[in-house]
Amino acid sequence: MRIAVSIVRIFVGVLFILSGLVKANDPLGLAYKMEEFFEVWTASLQASGSGLKSGLVSLFGFLHEHALTLSVLMIGLEIIAGVALLLGWSRRFILNLLLLLIVFFTFLTAYAFLSGKFKNCGCFGDCLPISPLTSFIKDIILLVLIIFLLSFQRHLQPLFNRRRRTLILILSLLFTIFFQWYVLAYLPVADCLPLKKGNNIAQQMQMPANAVQDSFAMTFIYTKGGKRYEFKPEELPADLGSYTFVDREQELVRKGNAEPPLKGFVLTSLDGADFTESILNEPRAVLVFALNFDGVSNWLDEFKKVYVEARQKNIPVFVVSSEAAKGKIIFSGVGLSEIVFLNCDYTVVKTAARTNPTFYLLEKGTVRAKESALKAGPFRSHL
């Protein structure tokens, strides 16, 4: 039994650490996925007559506003719990903590799977996307394994002495904090998004070559002689002209995956003109994606340096945001009225700007350089 407990302990601990590290590479991605859950739950509550609606809507609104903080804490908890399990540190407390975590995760993945409203639960971030069903099955297995460890925890032997275990746990905590701070400030270490370096944006907007289309079962409804008839396409009668067509119904029998990696990438001027194709055909262009302009003073000086150097080399510069009109007013107020602002869908901007802002250098629509404002210096070296 001790051997079985050790194997399960290693498997569960490593899986929690791996899951946490993959998400720690992009805490904003998990925060956006959490926001998606909160938005769906809020919409469902507002459409219901639940007596708890008001309180829960307020709660989900609060959690939505603090999704990034919740994401960072959840990721840290996941990694530290996995390390503590492997070390055998405070085993009863850690196993109960893991049980609470996995029950929560199982609820989320079950909802994602049963509701059909999510294609990816975000359990392993964007680098290891898995379907809600796969994730739900994974969580069920983990739940069983953690209950097994709780039942036989007396066989869990700690590694090293107490001082060394505590030291390793503290170092793990410090690493988790530093790593998440780094990627939030300087962009993810591993970029698994459609707008990563080397990707051509136009190609990312196209359907994958092996995409599977949705499959539908079609039924045609006719009447004849006061009677109603339903026919499948292969069952249509030879004397169809004697029937009166009423309606056509279709039922989804298999959900496909016919979606491009990048959706909604449309760049429009403040007056609504579409500049997407012309910008993607530019020999070189700088795009600065900004989520918002609340802290623009923190990166304005670096932007000016990039802008001046780009213009010296005849490289056009565009600021892209879902709040382009607001940005135009702010920049005009500091003497930068010549900057061209473009509107873009907020979801696309969130994908592009994992730091606010994120600088892109495009060559014929291909991403050649991508940096945060804190690395504007290295970015300028690519111009």
How would you describe the overall organization of this protein?
This protein is of the alpha/beta class and 383 residues long. Helices cover 50% and strands 14% of the residues. The protein folds into three domains: 2-186, no CATH class; 215-254, no CATH class; 276-380, 3-Layer(aba) Sandwich (Glutaredoxin), CATH 3.40.30.10. A five-stranded mixed beta sheet has the order 6-5-4-7-8, sandwiched between helices. Strands 2-1-3 form a three-stranded antiparallel beta sheet, with no helix packed on it. A hairpin with a 2-residue loop joins strand 1 (215-224) and strand 2 (227-231). Helix 1 runs antiparallel to helix 4 (67-87) and helix 1 crosses helix 6.
Summarize, please.
The chain has 383 residues and is an alpha/beta fold. The chain has helices spanning 2-24, 27-46, 53-65, 67-87, 91-115, 132-151, 162-186, 201-204, 276-280, 300-312, 324-332, 346-352, 376-380, and strands at 215-224, 227-231, 244-254, 285-289, 317-321, 340-343, 358-363, 366-372. It folds into three domains: 2-186, no CATH class; 215-254, no CATH class; 276-380, Glutaredoxin (3-Layer(aba) Sandwich), CATH 3.40.30.
